[in-house]
Design a protein that fits this description.
271 residues; single chain; Immunoglobulin-like; 4-stranded antiparallel beta sheet; 5-stranded antiparallel beta sheet; disordered N terminus; Jelly Rolls; 16 strands; mainly beta
Length: 271
């Protein structure tokens, strides 16, 4: 009887150990596979990253991003120049101005699943400023009158203008002859204004040039134009400046010098 009891006891211990081992394996297996909780459903809508963009109407360097991501709650933006954001729909200003920037958006959902997209964003100044009647051959000369004169200059074909046809003659010390025109430009932008001219040689300056912000009168250029090298040949001259933070309307005003001067081909270009 005693031997039978010992065998029964040993058998019971072995069975207990086996049950514990099986239970441990089952528990570990559940932990590793992270079985879903009762009532849970699979994630059938993982995040999808996408966005669009448009330049601000006030400053082409400021880009307005629209987040088009789906099934996402957290966002990380990299704007391609070192700048970042976690806003859903950020505005970002590219201090360096024009260029192509690789912008990446990472979208994440509540289950920490992510998706990302990278697009090239083109930052371009779409405004191309231009002077009306730059060669002074137009029938309506009032475009150079600044709203104050219908015929602010006299046409002249001698000496031969740079374009071979007509130049604008401004008499010495005249208060009724001048060139005055305002055009649209971009803020915070470097421009070069150039023109051709020829002057008489018996004075000190060919004209007084003012380039300014029409709205707040900030002067970017305000100086006398030197006499031309000779009085029989047109020569080019140019002026470089940067518009202000709020500049929209740029005024070009050429007042008479103390000698008769002719002008032609007034142009403006980005520097």
């Amino acid at each position: 009887m005693i031997r039978l009891n010992n065998k029964k006891y040993k058998f019971t211990n072995v069975m207990s150990l086996l049950i514990m081992l099986v239970s441990s394996i089952a528990f570990i297996s559940c932990e590793e596979n992270e079985l879903p909780e009762t009532g849970s459903i699979p994630d059938l809508t993982p995040p999808s990253a996408n966005f669009s963009y448009v330049a601000s109407t006030g400053d082409f360097k400021t880009i307005l991003f629209t987040n088009l991501s789906e099934s996402s709650s957290d966002f990380t933006w990299s704007f391609g120049d070192g700048g970042t954001s976690t806003e859903a729909n950020p505005e970002y200003t590219y201090a360096a101005g024009e260029g192509t920037y690789s912008v990446k958006l990472i979208s994440k959902d509540g289950n920490d699943l992510t998706d990302e997209i990278t697009l090239d964003v083109d930052v371009v100044d779409v405004l191309v400023p231009v002077f009306e009647c730059p060669s002074f051959e137009c029938d309506d000369r009032s475009v150079w009158g600044g709203g104050n004169a219908s015929s602010p200059y006299s046409g002249s074909g001698s000496p031969t203008p740079a374009d071979g046809t007509t130049g604008a003659k401004i008499s010495a010390n005249s208060t009724s002859k001048f060139l005055d025109q305002t055009i649209l430009v971009s803020a915070n932008t470097s421009y070069v204004v150039s023109f051709w001219y020829v002057s008489k040689s018996s004075g000190t300056h060919a004209g007084k040039l003012l380039i300014e912000d029409k709205d707040d009168n900030t002067a970017f250029i305000n100086e006398n134009v030197p006499l031309s090298a000779n009085s029989s040949t047109y020569e080019p001259i140019s002026y470089t400046f940067t518009t202000g933070a709020t500049t929209e309307n740029l005024r070009f005003f050429m007042a008479a010098g103390d000698v008769e001067t002719r002008f032609d081909l007034v142009e403006i270009k980005k520097n």
